[in-house]
């Protein structure tokens, strides 16, 4: 059974993207050869925290040139680095799909596609930035794993899992602050889904920031006498069959 947030922690809100730069800095401090390659969004994606922690030589800003960002990350991976890419999901998966498919996945390179601002979490940025199809795009690629964390703690766990897993990994993060679901030190696995609540009448399977919404829905249904199981499909690929 995974460790869930206690009542106090559950009231705290953090964005999944907030875990990105902080976790990269942790990994660098532990001796992992991580680098971050961003496309002029180091503040929004929080990759800037890697430089702020004293690793400025590990942050590469390619400017508004997302396709180049992926190819630079691929080159860094070939030279022995664990390369993470930034940008918003609409650009970090959609604009660069060809480079991810043919340069990263075809060659099974150690590149981690980890954009932020995925789904409708970008809110007022509008429909042009609300990337909904990124999960389906990434899960269809050979050699790619897909992790969709529900909160800050699981985002940190996902980013650390990506570093420990050779080859391409997609980690999907959002813009908005969301309630905590898991304990700070939660330990998650690739290929696992997690039962967060037992139930006898129905099951809700969710991933990402929708997990907390699924738990709310289960509470509402419980008030009507309906017992609902809630499962976090943290690992979309490979899926926990």
**What is the correct CATH architecture?**
3-Layer(aba) Sandwich
Number of strands: 12
Instruction: Please tell me the total number of domains.
Output: 1
Radius of gyration (CA) equals 17 Å
Cross-sheet strand order for the largest sheet: 3-2-4-5-7-6-12
Largest sheet: 7 strands, mixed
Order of helices and strands: HEHEHHEHEHHEHEHEEEEHEE
Which class do the helix and strand fractions yield?
A: alpha/beta
What's a quick, concise take on this entry?
By secondary structure, the chain is an alpha/beta fold. The protein contains ten helices and twelve strands. It has one domain: Rossmann fold, CATH 3.40.50.970.
Keyword list:
globular; single chain; Rossmann fold; 241 residues; 7-stranded mixed beta sheet; alpha/beta
């Amino acid at each position: 059974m995974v460790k869930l947030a206690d009542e106090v922690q559950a009231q705290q809100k953090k964005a999944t993207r907030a875990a990105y730069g902080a976790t990269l800095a942790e990994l660098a401090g532990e001796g992992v050869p991580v680098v971050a390659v961003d496309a002029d969004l180091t503040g929004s994606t929080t990759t800037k925290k890697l430089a702020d922690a004293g690793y400025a030589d590990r942050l590469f800003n390619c400017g508004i040139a997302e396709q180049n960002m992926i190819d630079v990350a691929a080159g860094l991976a070939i030279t022995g680095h664990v390369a993470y890419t930034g940008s918003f999901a609409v650009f970090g998966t959609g604009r660069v799909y060809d480079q991810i498919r043919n340069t990263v996945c075809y060659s099974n390179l150690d590149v981690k596609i980890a954009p932020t601002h995925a789904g409708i979490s970008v809110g007022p940025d509008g429909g042009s930035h609300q990337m909904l199809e990124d999960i389906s795009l990434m899960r269809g690629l050979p050699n790619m794993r897909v992790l969709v964390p529900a909160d800050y703690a699981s985002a940190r766990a996902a980013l650390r899992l990506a570093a420990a897993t050779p080859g391409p990994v997609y980690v999907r993060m959002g813009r908005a602050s969301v309630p905590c679901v898991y304990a700070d030190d939660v330990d998650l696995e690739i290929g696992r889904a997690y039962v967060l609540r037992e139930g006898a009448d129905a099951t809700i399977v969710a991933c990402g920031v929708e997990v907390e919404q699924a738990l709310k829905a289960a509470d509402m249904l419980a008030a009507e006498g309906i017992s609902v199981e809630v499962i976090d499909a943290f690992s979309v690929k490979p899926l926990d069959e």
